Amino acid sequence: MKGPRDWFGVRATLLLPTLVAVLSFATGVANISAATVSGPLAPYLPTAVERTVGFTGTLTGFLLLSSVYGLRRRLRAAWYATILLLPLTAVQGLLQPSVAVPGVGQPLPVSAPLVVLSIVSLPTVLMNRRLFDRRWDVSTTQLAAIAALVGGQIYITVGSYALRDSFGGIGTLTDALYFAVVTSSTVGYGDIAAQSQSARLFATSAVVIGTASFALALGSVLGPAIQSRITRALGTMTETQLDLLEDHVLVLGYGDLTEPIIDELADVEFVVVTDSQETASRLQSRDIPVLTDDPSDEEPQERAGIERARAVVTATNDDAQDALAILTARQLNPEVRIVAAATDRENVDKLRRAGADSVISPAVIGSHLLVQSALGDDDSESIADRIVGE
After folding, report:
1. Domain end: 131, 161, 185, which one?
2. 337: enclosing H helix or E strand
3. What number is the average pLDDT over the span 214-227?
4. Which structural domain, as residue segments, surrounds residue 285?
5. 281 and 364 share a domain?
6. pTM for this one?
7. Residues 6+ apart with CB under 8 A from 375
8. What percent of the residues of the chain are helix, what percent strand, and what percent coil, each to the nearest 5?
9. Do residues 122 and 147 both lie within one domain?
10. Per-residue model confidence as pLDDT tens digits over 22-33
């Protein structure tokens, strides 16, 4: 039976805003294409609002999808953005009048589901605030791309508006912004043209600055995506997959004992952390979630969601390495249950002192079952048979 955590966990926090974003986009498009609009708020809506309400709804939908992408990475900034956008989509749903469809007597309230779903989504997002605690780490390249893009648009908008008398088709700031976007994106519809030498020189600089800033911004966006594909090809999980882990089992290290453990975890969400590239590639080819890194380091365990894990398992052939992994895991999450397998039985107590809640020695268990079975203990023989799968 699913509990509240299953229904209102990280997946619900991602799914509900995504549905709101899709509905916001759909209702926005519906209002843009509508010939006439009517509804309870229609008499109170200014003409400018009626003309732009669909456009703003569609734009809000795209912004909300962007914030959902940030939520997938567990960014706190994306959580704040979602909290601001959900009430905005509800208000826009109320402002978007019903659409009069030809052949239908009454206008259809296409925005009603948007309002309801926006209101329902907000408590779920608020409830899961603790899950989104990652800071937005922006690289120098990304900062440069953002600054160049914003600065370029401001330069072109202000400059073209100042020279509006020398441009055919620019009369307002909206026209100037439109010119900045179509120029920087190399669309260039041709409806705005420079009519003087100074305007042509400015337009030349606008093309150079605008296209360069767009190219830099595009590179900063595609770079992480390409890196994600490379890491997947090398046999490791993407950051998005790691961010979605919740209530899972963390398997630290890989050894001879790990393979049967993975078989037992077939119905449980888990991830393996190993520093062997060959092992990681082999596990990835079998669609087993794996992170290629040192399992005893803090950073890989944090990326693998140690603070959200339900249990930690260590069962390699190196008890010393397992002890280091246990120490790190216990430090990062004092509440998580840690189970370890001791290759040498004299290390059982050492692993317990390192922080393991339970330590199992396969050698001790195996020798006990073998002796009892040799002495004719049917129960021990039955247990041994079940262990080896007979």
Report:
1. 131
2. strand 337-341
3. 70
4. 239-388
5. yes
6. 0.50
7. none
8. 65, 10, 25
9. no
10. 888 887 777 665
